[in-house]
Amino acid sequence: MYMDRWSKGRSGNESSFNFRAICAREAPNEDEGNEGMAGTNSERELLTEGPAIILAYPQLGENIGMVARAMANFGLSELRLVNPRDGWPNEKARSAASRADHVIDNAKLYESLEEAIADLNFVYATTARDRDGFKPVRSPIVAARELRTRFRGGEAIGIIFGRERTGLTNEEVSLADEIVTFPVNPAFASLNLAQAVLLMSYEWLKTGMASEDETSFQAIAQRPATKEQLQGLVDHVEEALEARNYFRPANKKPKLMENLRAVLTRPSFTESEIQVLRGIISSLDRFTRENPRGSGAPDRGRKAQSGGDDD
Q1: Helix 193-207 vs helix 140-152: crossing angle, to nearest 10
Q2: Which tens digits make up the pLDDT trace of 52-78?
Q3: What are the chain's domains?
Q4: Distance between CA atoms of residues 152 and 74, nearest Å
Q5: For labeling, which of 117, 120, 168, 187 is most exposed (least CB within 10 Å)?
Q6: Three-class secondary structure assignment of the chain
Q7: Per-residue pLDDT tens over the stretch 208-245
């Protein structure tokens, strides 16, 4: 029996998990815990629960591997294979899984679809085609919510995906409790097997989040600049431009400064951004292309070029 192990989210619901608490931990050093692959981190909690993904008579090992990767992306781990054409285990599948080894290593092999779903309480069949039957047809969002509800109730659940080229037969669809179909272009409705699994896996993960608005990380909170700091930036720019005789003719300076002030105060700068901009202006004041930063003070550079002080 499945057990829901998600930690309490902000809502206090024990059946939801706090996505940010799991994902937004202090990032490791570049070479620590990420196994050399962007987006992976072995030091973070690995989500491994949810519906079984059942692939009915899959053909290519590469597609099975990409399915495993999609499952791992969204916290699923139970992969069931019904008589894969190219046999199992399959090294092409492992390679395409991009280190989703926990899914590949624990994949279960079955001779028939009936055998693969025998121990499950509730199963969806995925299809892009209209079926002449009486089974309810759900969208991915509704289907994922139903799966989550049943999962929390302790039921064993699964989703069936058909062959890459022909999908599921009517007889195979009849083995499921309900149908799930994706809102796609009706003139081009065929999805890659891994894409279909990824879409359902994504909807599944969302149903367990404390809030669908949560993200795995956020921008660092920064204090907005005060009006005094903004005025300091404007004054600094004005001084630098005045020294370079920018305001010509002089009678146009008030209008130019009005426009400049509007530009510099529009973006709602933070304190750190003001510091960066003023640092840039100070650098432009002190250094030139002929005497860049690191070559010595500008006045010393000019003396060196002229041969020293005049006697």
Answers
A1: 60
A2: 999 999 999 999 999 999 999 999 999
A3: 52-208 (3.40.1280.10), 227-286 (no CATH)
A4: 17
A5: 187
A6: CCCCCCCCCCCCCCCCECHHHHHCCCCCCCCCCCCCCCCCCCCCCCCCCCCEEEEECCCCHHHHHHHHHHHHHCCCCCEEEECCCCCCCCHHHHHHCCCCHHHHHCCEEECCHHHHCCCCCEEEEECCCCCCCCCCEECHHHHHHHHHHHHHCCCCEEEEECECCCECCHHHHCCCCEEECCCCCCCCCCCCHHHHHHHHHHHHHHHCECCCCCCCCCCCCCCECCHHHHHHHHHHHHHHHHHCCCCCCHHHHHHHHHHHHHHHHCCCCEHHHHHHHHHHHHHHHHCCCCCCCCCCCHHHHHHHHHCCCCC
A7: 888 777 777 777 888 888 889 889 989 998 998 888 88
